[in-house]
Amino acid sequence: MTLKLGVPSKGRLMDETFAWFGARGITLERSGSDREYAGRVSGIEGIELVLLSAGEIPRELAAGRIDLGVTGTDLVREKLPLWRDQLETLVELGFGHADLILAVPAFWADVSTLDDLDAVAAAFRAEHGFRLRIATKYHRLIREHLKAAGVADYQLVDSQGATEGTIKNGTAEAVADITSTGATLEANHLKILSGAPVLKSQATLFLSRTSGADETILAELKAKLGL
Amino acid sequence: MAGKAEIRAEAERLFALFQEAGAAPFEAALLQPSEVLLDLYGEDIRARAYVTSDPVLGEQMLRPDFTVPIVQAHMTDGAEPARYTYMGDVFRQQQAGTGRASEYLQVGYEVFDRADPAGADAEVFALFSAALKGRGLQGSIGDIGILVAAVEGLTTSDRRRAALMRHIWRPHRFRALLDRFAGRGALPEGRAELVSSLKGLDVAQIVRAAGPEIGLRRASEVVERLKSLREDMDVAPIPAAEIEAVSAILNLKMAADDAAGALAEIAVEFPVIKTAAQGFVKRLHALIERGVDVAALTYEGAYGRTSMEYYDGFVFGFAREGGAPVASGGRYDALTRVLGQGREIPAVGGVIRPELLLGAGQ
What we know:
The structure holds two protein chains of two kinds.
Chain A: E1 3-8, H1 11-22, E2 27-30, E3 39-42, E4 47-52, H2 57-63, E5 68-72, H3 73-79, H4 83-86, E6 87-92, E7 98-105, H5 114-128, E8 132-136, H6 139-148, E9 154-158, E10 174-179, H7 183-187, E11 190-192, E12 199-201, E13 203-208, H8 215-225
Parallel strand pairs in A: 1-4, 1-5, 8-9, 8-10
Antiparallel strand pairs in A: 2-3, 5-13, 6-13, 7-10, 7-11, 7-12
Chain B: H1 4-20, E1 24-25, E2 31-33, H2 34-41, H3 45-48, E3 50-54, E4 58-62, H4 67-77, E5 82-91, E6 103-112, H5 117-131, E7 138-143, H6 144-152, H7 158-166, H8 171-181, H9 191-197, H10 203-210, H11 219-233, H12 240-251, E8 253-255, H13 256-269, H14 274-289, E9 298-300, E10 314-319, E11 325-331, H15 333-339, E12 347-352, H16 354-361
Parallel strand pairs in B: 1-5, 7-9
Antiparallel strand pairs in B: 2-4, 3-4, 5-6, 6-12, 7-10, 8-9, 10-11, 11-12
């Protein structure tokens, strides 16, 4: 038996994950060339490294095709409505911090809260004849957040990238996206609504509840990671 | 649990009953364009309906109810007055763990008639009552029209009344706004500071300084709302007695024949609901005329406020004690106004869920 550990296959998230495990005596590395998605694990027996897109890790964990996985809490919450039943949070890794926020044009001097956004959505619909558009890829999280706050007369439009540009391009009136420093928002003349973010996300090590992970190896891994 | 064939047979029985009562059978497509449903119910319907897409037709939803297609069909080419009945599956996503069906049969009956609203309300209710007789169900009635009249009659600004009216079907938000407008609830964070920062300044200048104008919402709209926020700070709180009256209306829960007196009592202090309360009495008489035992019905002031978003008058339901409604319905004049693009027709109707009815009968 081996445990399959899913790790983001590229970029900072991969590098920082490797460093985090490395600091705990487990060396993760890519084998072969930079382009080959295969990995090697040393410092512990019975762990197999699987390199995946961070966005696919929640699904693979839920399906039990991998036993462990590193990905952002934002992706888990958005993609897995039943994540509490399917996944167990082992440890937050302390990097990859990002907040899911709602932002509107900075010149909307009348808007700072969800209460304002709701009032503006009503006025916008009356004035323009359609529901105020919010561009995002986090449909479920944003819809639940707005529902809880009693915001109506809006619509979500899908945006898988360059979301901050949608307002200037005339395809949305507001955006909901992940941000770490807010610099991109500022550069696009947007401001974040006040109050707590919709979600505070960070890179997290999850355990699949459905994969039937080998208890002995898992215990050894946990001990090594100090969990 | 009843089997599929048994449920089907029960549905056929109700469908036949409604046709005998004079309704024409109505068929609706399983795939409905998303646009209309989204505009009507808002983005939340996405979490409740099954959405699918077609490269040519665009986004479609698996029929979440019959009401929208039936109103659309009637507004396009229906004769008046009209009575329709339908029988078919509807589809709703359910939360995990609730064990509720996501695909189930509905049998419905809808009346489009201008002549006698109270009579039409009573006709639908009496028909349902007869169809469900002896099945151990408790009938409940309510009247959103009384709440609507109360909100319209509040002593406050048009803007505040409109805000309350818009959230009449969202109880938490409604209550929060009502408390705020009564001077009891807190203002949204930063509102007081924002308004005081505008004092003596050119609002348009403030908007210009805040950032470049981007997107479809124009700077003039921002200026407009800032002015309205400033005005709103000077609006007097809604009188406490009116807030009490609204709470009293929402909290009523009693035998339906006692409700008329209770509403009349509230109307003494808060006469704006008088006409609506008289409408309730008229409907009660129409129910009695049709042989409904109104003393056995429960009246609930807040009935139908959360689950039946488009109902704006009479509302009713039948349920086992503590159970989900086996049948529900009500008046939805406003919906015909929205879908009729300028035209409207008073409409009332309801649906029965045969599989729940069979469960209820056991």
